[in-house]
Amino acid sequence: MKRYIKIFTNGLVLENPLLMLMIGLCSALAVTTAVANGLGMGLAMTFVLLMSEVVISAFRKLIPDSIRIPVFIIIIAAFTTVIDYVLKAYFPDLSKAMGVFIPLIVVNCIIMGRVEGFSYKRPVMDVIPDAIGMGIGYTWVLVGISALRELLGNGTIFNIQIMPQSYKPILFFVLSPGGFFVFALFISLNIFLKSRLKNVEEERK
Amino acid sequence: MILFKIFISAFLIDNIVLMRFLALCSFIGMTTDEGQSVGMGLAVTFVTVLATTVTWPLYYFILKPMGLEFLQILVFILVIAALVQLVEFYLKKSAPALYSSMGIYLALITTNCAILAVTFDNVSKGYNFIESIVYSVGVALGYLLAMLLLAGIRKRIATSPIPSFLKGTPILFVASALLSVAFMGFAGLVK
């Protein structure tokens, strides 16, 4: 049990896919202009990650080594198509707001990286906490970035007015440059958190 | 004239990296020196145009008449992956000099989201074949420009005093934010 918790928490800070490994950045910056979009993207990504990791891990002994990459791509693309059509049918506004970034989950390096580096070698039981941990690690960063951007750039969170009426929204944050800027702050924060965590661990020893 | 408009808006106004946040992995990872960033940019240009010439007819002559639009994601990514492999084999065999300078980048760009995004855009924006080609050239050159700009800035960053909490990757994103502000100035260039 302890092992699964360790695998699960790995993705949250220490090996956070966005902030530490610097992969899967595109979608993280593009869709985070509003919290609803950030959350939607995070959950869509978590779904694809979980399903592909489980399927690949279950079939890992049947997939020939030499053609594993094309096989992975087909599996990931299949689940991406599923989530794309589900969002189009049930959440058309969200789907429109995220546009091309939903189909682009298929080339998101986080999924390819986890599948190739982790689930191709591990049993299904290990893979589930990993996928959920990585998914949540990705989602919290997305929600964090989008909350800050929506709050400063629009004065709202989930379209509910938070800032006082006298507050003038800083448009910079919802436009493209704001995405880069807020992300820079988040990486910096994560580096700080990581060094703190390491200090705590050393003190325990 | 419409072709020129498509080109300028893909190249500058909707710059794929700085305005649309695509292909950021290589934007951050491959810009440590100018030569490398130009190599990557040229390889991406080549593959983007090639991918457009293949996926556009594939969508309109095969997928659409047969009602298989839902296979778009799957087919496009596989076609691009296969295409990159073929180009790699061909270059290795017939142009070893070019291969040794461009080969390493080719393997990396299968999962470059800019290329896949361009092929999706061509369909969703309803461009005809010529427009699609012009659009993909514009996007790819915009990518090259952004790569080159960041590579130049990184050279300066290496020797500049930087606040310690921004050292490393964060400063790159701050620099990209400023570049992006500059590119916002192009908005409204083409009506």
Low-confidence stretches of chain A: none
Q: Sketch the major β-sheet of chain B.
A: none
Which series of helices and strands of chain B comes N to C?
Answer: HHHHHHHH
> How many strands, which pairing sense, and closed or not: the largest β-sheet of chain A?
2 strands, antiparallel
Biggest protein-protein interface?
A-B, 41 and 42 residues
Structural class of chain B: mainly alpha
The oligomeric state is heterodimer
Strand order of the largest sheet of chain A: 1-2
Helix share, percent of chain A: 55-70%
Gross geometry of chain B: globular
Number of H- or I-type helical stretches of chain B: 8
**Approximate strand percentage of chain B:** under 5%
Whole-angstrom Rg of chain A:
18 Å
Low-confidence stretches of chain B: none
Strand content of chain A: under 5%
Helix content of chain B: over 70%
Structural classification of chain A: mainly alpha
Number of domains of chain B: 1
Describe the structure.
The complex is a heterodimer of chains A (205) and B (191). Chain A is 68% helix and 2% strand. Chain A is an all-alpha fold and 205 residues long. Chain A has a two-stranded antiparallel ribbon with strand order 1-2. In chain A, 40% of the residues are buried. By secondary structure, chain B is mainly α. Chain B has one domain (2-188). Chain B is globular and about 60 Å long. The relative contact order of chain B is 0.20. The model of chain B has no long low-confidence stretch (mean pLDDT 87). Classes of the chains: A mainly alpha (205), B mainly alpha (191). The interface between A and B is large, with 41 and 42 residues.
